[in-house]
Structure formats: structure tokens, C-alpha cells
Specification:
- This protein is mostly helical.
- The chain has helices at residues 42-68, 75-80, 89-95, 98-131, 134-149, 152-162, 169-176, 191-218, 223-231, 236-264, 268-274, 285-295, 299-331, and strands spanning 2-5, 20-23.
- Strands 1-2 form a two-stranded antiparallel ribbon.
- Helix 1 (42-68) packs antiparallel against helix 13 (299-331), helix 6 packs parallel to helix 11 and helix 9 (223-231) crosses helix 10.
- The protein is globular.
Length: 332
Amino acid sequence: MSVQTERADRGPEGAAAPGVRKTDDPPTPGDGRTKKPGGASAPYLLLLPALLATLVLLGWPLVKNGVLSFQNLNPRQLILHLTEWNGFDNYQEVLSSSDFWKVVQRTVVFTAVNVVLIMVLGTLVGLLLARLGKRMRLLLLLGLVLAWAMPVIAATTVYQWLFAQRFGVVNWLLAKAGWSSMADYNWFGTQFSTFSVIILLIVWQSIPFVAINLYAATTTIPKELYEAASIDGAGTWKSFTSVTFPFLRPFLWATTFLEVIWVFKAFPQIFAMNAGGPDRLTETLPIYAFVEGPGNQHYGMGAAISFLTILILLGLTFYYLRTVLKQEEDEL
């Protein structure tokens, strides 16, 4: 509070004289009276626990894995507690192996097929959720959540039972439908059939995430836009391309990126289904790293393969972030 005095005369008891006028001036910006101590650093302090947890749980194992990839670590070194550094020998051996590049190619194709099926089917289910009534939507959401919440190993075991050679439900249904040759078909005997079962499992597990995410995105679209498109004579497809898709594009892009990472590093479904068989023809990079590392007790080699896998995922992340930033700049 500031006091402006016209006359310095004060009453006998210290009261302000009639010529004194008191005014309540609003605080001016930057005078320091409205700032709270530590206000600027508060967001960083709130992020600090998450950053520390990330460094401890992810950063330290990554550093240890990187150090291990430059060592020759076999059972002999483990028993004798020896540390034998071999520089880039593990990486040279991996990168010069034709098997590694076959696995990389197989992983890329496997990821692409899964992601395309997941995004197409998940988007269709998400759009279906937006059009259903409350009761049917609740029933479908319940089924999606139950499928999503099912543990990976439990789901893999169920699919093994379904596609079992002698007592599998799938073979029994196909035989009853007229394909008698499928009565004892071995779904895990060839590369194509094994991958078919694994892809079906991964797609089934991933559709709920995409569908629920896309359905939540459709609730943010103003209904007035659909009304305006209808007045302009737009049909269902035109409304989708001019109204729905532009709003869903950021969600589709982000969800696709998450699915690429999730499928690319899928391990339990493939390993528990057939351990990368038959004849190691269904091994992807995570399975290949495990088999060449702990499987063959060449831990340095496995660490090098896993570190290369991480570098590939970091490259995908960098590409995604660059694309997102470019889109934001174009919108501005």
C-alpha cells in the first residue's frame, strides 16, 4: 500500500490529517511481490524422481550392456572372474555374419506385416466403437479390455493349445468343415505357418490398444463438423477423409510408432511359441540375441546384438521425433 500525502499535518493521536489520501496501487509486473520462491524450478523438481528412476532402471543396464559388448565373456571368464577386452571384435563378427542380416530382414518384414494388420483392424474396430450404441459399445469394450489384460505367456499357451497338432481346436474345426487333411496339421512345422500363428497372436493382443486409443480420439471431434459436412452433401467416405482422418492423423501416427517399437522387440510370444523354430527360421533380433548370447554362453556376442537392436530402435525414435517436429513447424 502506498500513501500519498498532500499535507504532513497529523492529528494529536497519530491519525491521518484530512489532507492525507491513501491509495491501493496494484502491484506492477516484475516488482517481485507476486513471485513465489522456487516457482521456476518447480516443474524440474517434479520431473526429477522420474528422471532418476529412468537413469537407474534403464540407463545403468544400458551402460552395463554396452560395456559387456566389448568383452569376451564365456563360462571360463565367469568361473575365473576374468575380464577379457576384445574391442570391436564382437561387432565385427556380428556385422560380417550373413545370418545377422537375414534376421534383420526377417524382423523388418515381420514388424511391417504386424503393424499394418494391427493399425488397419484396430482403426476399423475403433471407428465401430464410435458408431455403436451404449450397451453394445460397453460389451465390445469389455471384450477388448479382457483380451488386452491377458498375460502374454498365458495368451501364448492358449494359442499353442488352439493350434496343437493332434488335439487342437483349430484342426478339429477345419476337419469338421471338410478339410480332412488339416486334422493332424503341424502349424509349427514350417516357417510360414509358425509365423502365421505368431502374427495372429500379436495382432489379437494389439488391436485393443489401437481401437480404444482411436475411439478416445474420435470423442474429441466436434459434431458440428459432421453436420457441416452433411449439409455440404458429403457422404460417409467424404466425411471420413475430410473430418475424421485429419483429426485422427496425430493419434494414428503416434500409435503406429508405438506399435512398431512393441512388435520389433517382441520376445515372449515368439520364444514361448516355438523358441524361434523350426530350424531357427522364425528368429527375430531379440530371439537371435538371446540364442547367440545366453543360449550359446557367449554373453559378449549377445550384448553386441542387443546393443545393435537398441541402436536401430533409437534410429526409429529419432526419425519419428524429427517427423513430428517438422509437422508442428508446418502447422505453425
